[in-house]
Design brief:
This protein has 13 helices and no strands. It is mainly α and 239 residues long.
């Protein structure tokens, strides 16, 4: 992030398409998910904002602080005064930053969550994610204060939550197989996240080992300290 956003406080532009691509590629690389995984869900999973609001916050902080502390004779102050006199696009851009109200990062995170809820009715991926993470919170596994989790186990956990796994509910989507035909190898239901965690006979031994047979809700499941290991072992069963 330091390399990508170096000196971004002084970028007088809204054209950041290429940079956004690099930003999201980095996010998905850290998560360990496919590059086709939905951007909104990746950002919500980590509690990250989109790149634009992140840069805007730095710009708002920088230009507001400079104007407050300026004595008027710095080279930048002279240039800003000249731009203001001629009402240049650069001046209008910086003025919009100085007049911005609120925290663009927090506002964007709220907006991402609103978009996620709105897309629930039209996207099964969003619907599944909201079942798994109804409060759209950042799980403790991503915080540095918790017990260390080996990355290969954490990656399995993340892929499960973001539908970036290889269960038939997902691979069937690639081949345009009807949802009801994406059956598990046990033939007792569609091989989706809920089936392999709560109902599949092939994972009964894992459920018994970790004493989750009586667990029936995602909320209770993801509160367990060893949830990453459980998901890793379950996904490994179907590889």
């Amino acid at each position: 992030m330091s390399a990508i956003l170096y000196s971004c406080e002084t970028w007088i532009t809204n054209n950041m398409h290429d940079l956004v691509t690099h930003y999201m590629s980095a996010v998905k690389l850290l998560l360990g998910v496919r590059h086709t995984t939905t951007n909104i869900l990746c950002l919500i999973e980590l509690g990250y904002p989109e790149l634009g609001p992140l840069i805007m916050k730095r710009q708002v902080t920088f230009i507001s602080k400079f104007v407050r502390q300026s004595t008027g004779d710095e080279p930048l102050s002279i240039v800003l005064a000249m731009c203001a006199e001629h009402n240049t696009p650069g001046h209008r851009f910086l003025q919009s930053r100085m007049n911005y109200q609120g925290d663009p990062v927090l506002q964007n995170i709220v907006s991402l969550k609103e978009q996620c809820n709105q897309r629930r009715e039209t996207s099964t991926r969003f619907d599944t994610y909201l079942d798994i993470n109804p409060q759209l919170d950042v799980h403790s596994v991503y915080r540095t204060t918790v017990i260390y989790t080996p990355d290969y186990i954490r990656v399995a956990f993340t892929r499960f939550r973001l539908s970036s796994h290889r269960l038939r509910i997902e691979t069937g989507r690639w081949r345009r197989v009807k949802r009801e035909d994406r059956l598990c190898v046990c033939t007792q239901g569609v091989q989706d996240e809920a089936h392999v965690i709560f109902r599949c006979p092939n994972t009964l031994g894992i459920r018994q080992t970790y004493n989750i047979c009586s667990t029936t809700t995602w909320t209770d499941l993801f509160r367990m300290n060893n949830i990453c290991q459980i998901i890793y072992e379950i996904l490994k069963t179907f590889q």
